[in-house]
Design brief:
heterodimer, A: 120 residues, 51% strand, B: 110 residues, mainly beta, globular
């Protein structure tokens, strides 16, 4: 069955960087984009960016451009989301999700979420 | 401020029918499908409806969707206590080349 398994909880200081991994299984990876979505405590869902595992192409929400990099490691078939210059308002649960149809917003499978806490 | 506009809350009693609206623009809902997600607090979102009104396998037919112009709606009939959750609408936005989300609607079953 399709699964996306994410790395575990992290606590970071303001100004630091964090790298979250997302390892899919149960399907052909190159057929589906991987997106990153975050959710601050008590808030709604916020799209951050996507990656095409076939060619490494990416696109990011304007808000995160310059601070986020999403990559795909072909050797381990794992997606990574790097967020730099962390601030307290980056405290959130970060999800990766598989997009069933490219350019749709149809996320049929999600990772379990990774809590990132930014605190001094 | 979310690109898609949803009411922050909705409520109903068991057995009632509730509707949640989602308003967007020509660059998102007006030109693409709408997707609805259900999120129980502490868990990842789960897709409830795809392509405006299609239910994935396992989603009961109590859940239905509609779209007209730049707005969409989710209807839940025969409300049950386990429908209490947050509901989000999503659509692809052509100008952003990415999905846009509604702010979410917290459904309370009284």
């Amino acid at each position: 069955q399709v699964q996306l398994v994410q790395s575990g909880t992290e606590v970071k200081r303001p100004g630091a960087s964090v790298k979250v991994s997302c390892k899919p299984s149960g399907y052909t990876f190159t057929g589906y984009y991987i997106h990153w979505v975050r959710q601050a405590p008590g808030q709604g869902l916020e799209w951050m960016g996507w990656i095409n595992p076939t060619n490494g192409g990416t696109n990011y929400a304007q808000k995160f451009r310059g601070r986020v990099i999403v990559t795909w490691d072909t050797s381990t078939s794992t997606a990574y989301m790097d967020l730099t210059r962390l601030r307290s308002d980056d405290t959130a649960v970060y999800y990766c999700a598989r997009e069933f149809y490219d350019g749709s917003g149809y996320f049929d499978h999600w990772g379990q979420g990774t809590l990132i806490t930014v605190s001094s | 401020q979310s690109v898609l506009t949803q009411p922050p809350s909705a409520s109903g009693t068991p057995g009632q029918r509730v509707t949640i609206s989602c308003s967007g623009s020509s660059s998102n809902i007006g030109s693409n499908y709408v997707y609805w997600y259900q999120q129980v607090p502490g868990t990842a979102p789960k897709v409830l409806l795809y392509q405006n009104d299609q239910r994935p396998s396992g989603v009961p037919d109590r859940f239905s969707g509609a779209k007209s112009g730049t707005s969409a709606s989710l209807a839940i009939s025969g409300l049950r206590s386990d429908d209490e959750a947050d509901y989000y609408c999503v659509a692809w936005d052509e100008s952003l080349s990415g999905p846009v989300f509604g702010g979410g609607t917290k459904l309370t079953v009284l």
